[in-house]
Amino acid sequence: MAMREQRVADTFVELADTLVAGFDTVEFLHTLTERCVELLDADTAGLLLADERGSLRLVAASTGQTQLLELFQLQEEEGPCLECYHSGQVVTLPDVSEVAGRWPRFSAMATELGFAGVHAIPMQLRTQVIGTLNLFRTHPNGLDETDARLGKALVDVATIGLLSERAVRHQEMVTEQLQTALNSRVTIEQAKGVLAERYSVTPDQAFTAMRRHARSRNQRLAEVAGEIIAGTLDVTDAVADARDRDRDHSRS
Amino acid sequence: MGERTARVFSWVAAAAADDGEGDGRISPAALCRAARTRLDVDGVSMTAMTGHGMHTPVAASGELAAELEELQVTLGEGPGLAAFTFGSPMLVPDLAASAARWPGFAAAARERDVAAVFAFPLHTGTIQLGVFELHRVATGPLATGDLANALVFADLALQLLLDSSSGVGRQPDRHPIDDTSRGRDAVHQATGMIAVQLEVGMAEALARLRAHAFTGDTPLSEVAADVVARRLRFRPEAEPDETPG
């Protein structure tokens, strides 16, 4: 099997494997965005989840730029990712400058951040859209047909893995799970703040440190965040590591 | 403010204005009354809780709602307690079908003709202040719109509990309800930073952040962004400093 095909197969297995003890929804959604960037012809990705109050929240973003653009859309209430959520359809935007008439603020902001193409895929279970996975490209033109299909398949498998086993019978369980995931996300943000202040690092560096620690100990991200807030976990080494890597990165 | 937040808030404000005895300020009691009227439920309650098992009734739309809360504390089981413990809403559209999970509470609720209970934790991250609970005589899930509104009611209930600790809500003419969907990540990050700056818990840090925003009449998201960008620091026993640059 070719390397890419092997990688694709592994990813499907990884995304379907949600019924494990200690399953971490937030980490799972981060993994989904990362795999999409690795396997598809996209530069970055972001993931929005519906909060059931009628708005979307950012749950994962592979870069700070992506985070900004996603948050910008939520704030301005315009852009392809929101359109994807409301319509439940894939939205492909080969060139953001061409939608200046329709979404002027989004178009300007995307251009300023260096993005050209957007491909938004709905996370849909039956008739309910629970969020969107959004792929961004720094060069114009959309995903090719193969990548677009693969992206849709990855998102579908992840959505089903996330919800169906637990929730296929009960809407109640979908709500319980989504709200828990969103609250975990809040805990992680609070812990980022704690580390940012304590070690004078950026929230992004704090997140990298928490994630690395969670992975190396096989712990849930929200659990690590909770321990940082409770003051029962020392992540000095992981923070120093994240800061050094960032420094090396900006030098190279 | 988001459309739904604005609508729910206007309901609570109207319920507060209708209260002959109150001073027109929004309060937990007004919030419970508004939820009771606007949602397809028969009773609403708000309870403050701590992780150490302390429960304080805050408000209820009627005696039965208050009693259902009491019962859970006495029995040591029920959807409200579970919602608080697990930090996840407990939506129980048919208590009889979930009797195995809460045998004592299900039986006691049946005696009182209560068939459905919907409990929402008043949590934001590691801040855990209590539970907001709805009950209904008829079985059946909350309609989609009711569920969305109930989540917003719970958001407002959390903010009322939080602000009562910092005295923000006591100011007349002030309805310190923000739409938490704006600049949300920055608010939570700022909370973590302020907790370290003041050496206090997350709940107090968030209460102080909100108090600073509301007394300065600045949007919460802006104050939070200033904290995250390190333009604003909180110092113990003093007003926050503006840091140049």
- Second CATH tier, the architecture of the largest domain in chain B: 2-Layer Sandwich
Helical amount of chain B: 40-55%
Number of distinct helices of chain A: 10
Q: Which fold name fills CATH's third level, the topology of the largest domain in chain B?
A: Beta-Lactamase
Low-confidence stretches of chain B: none
Overall CATH class of the largest domain in chain B: Alpha Beta
The proportion of strand residues of chain B reads 15-25%
Strand order within the widest beta sheet of chain B: 2-1-5-4-3
The CATH class label of the largest domain in chain A is Alpha Beta
Strand portion of chain A, in percent? Answer: 5-15%
**Distance linking N and C termini of chain B:** 30 Å
Question: What value does the Rg of chain A take, in angstroms?
Answer: 18 Å
Structural classification of chain A? alpha+beta
Cα separation of the termini of chain A = 34 Å
Describe the structure.
The complex is a heterodimer of chains A (252) and B (245). Helix content of chain A is 60%, strand content 14%. With 252 residues, chain A is an alpha+beta fold. Chain A folds into two domains: 3-168, Beta-Lactamase (2-Layer Sandwich), CATH 3.30.450.40; 181-251, Arc Repressor Mutant, subunit A (Orthogonal Bundle), CATH 1.10.10.10. A five-stranded antiparallel β-sheet of chain A has the order 2-1-5-4-3, sandwiched between helices. The longest helix of chain A has 29 residues, at 171-199. The radius of gyration of chain A is 18 Å and the shape is globular. Chain B is an alpha+beta fold and 245 residues long. Chain B has nine helices and seven strands. In chain B, the strands form two sheets. In chain B, strands 2-1-5-4-3 form a five-stranded antiparallel β-sheet, with helices on both faces. In chain B, strands 6-7 form a two-stranded antiparallel ribbon. In chain B, helix 1 crosses helix 2, helix 6 crosses helix 8 (202-215) and helix 7 (184-198) crosses helix 8. Chain B is globular, with a radius of gyration of 19 Å. In chain B, 53% of the residues are buried. The mean pLDDT of chain B is 87. The interface between A and B is large, with 36 and 41 residues. Chain B: Residues 154-228 form the ANTAR domain. Chain B: It comes from Prauserella halophila. Chain B: This is ANTAR domain-containing protein.
